[in-house]
Amino acid sequence: MKKSIREKILEKRNKHRYAEEDSKRIIDKLINLPQLKKADTIMLYYPHKNEVNILPLFYKLSDKTFLFPKTTSEDILPVKVDSLDNFSKGRFGILEPQGELFNPKDIDIVIVPAVAFDETGHRIGYGKGYYDRFLKKTDALKIGVAYDFQVLDKFPTEHHDIPVDLIVTPTKIIKIKEELRDV
Q1: Ligand-binding site membership of 99 (annotated)
Q2: Residue 171: DSSP 8-state
Q3: Is 51 annotated as a binding residue?
Q4: What share of the chain is helix, strand, coil (3-state, %, to 5)?
Q5: d(CA 54, CA 160)
Q6: What is the pLDDT of residue 128?
Q7: Fewer CB within 10 Å, N side or C side of the chain?
Q8: Is there a binding annotation on residue 46?
Q9: CB burial of residue 178 (10 Å; 0-12, 13-18, 19+)
Q10: 6 is in an annotated binding site
């Protein structure tokens, strides 16, 4: 089931004609989140294959410390980044940083990409489990970003799936974590 959802959503995402506009709307919502304003250290990702483009956050929030993921054969390692010029193609053809490793326990917010999310914060990624393994290692606020069509009602989950606390789309913010609902 996850495989067929992944295939359908990826096909739709690859054809999404309003990715740039929708990414800007998501950025606007993220910038206004109180949690993002308070955070010192934020982990982003380098968008790949029409994923939500969150790179403008790097420039708009220049007072923050930014991290980007670097992959090993099994894990994601957070790497501190001072410039978007020092990236090279990594393991899956995704641009990855060079630089100093950062302790996952010291991250305030992780912006999490996905192929799809459900209304309970669970995600479908590319099927390798990298983000699930990484998110277990940090107490950071986990913010999923997605186009509206990437958020589904519900799909099957497994015991190792780690949900996000919040999902931001171009049209809404879905607060999953109980204590965020009143904010």
Answers
A1: no
A2: S
A3: yes
A4: 30, 25, 50
A5: 26
A6: 83
A7: N
A8: no
A9: exposed
A10: yes
User: 168 φ, ψ to 5°?
Assistant: -115, 125
User: Is 124 known as a binding-site position?
Assistant: yes
Is 147 marked as a binding-site residue? Answer: no
Residue 59 labeled ligand binder: no
Mean pLDDT score across all residues of the chain: 93
Q: Report how far Cα 130 is from the mean position of its chain's Cα atoms.
A: 12
pLDDT at 183: 54
131 is in an annotated binding site: yes
Residue 77 phi/psi, 5° resolution? -115, 130
Residue range 150-157: average pLDDT? Answer: 93
144 is in an annotated binding site: no
Q: Which CATH superfamily is domain 2-177 in?
A: NagB/RpiA/CoA transferase-like (3.40.50.10420)
DSSP 110: E
46, two tokens: 């380098």
With tokens 């171009």, the residue in question is 170
Query: Which helix or strand (DSSP H or E) is residue 168 part of?
Result: strand 166-168
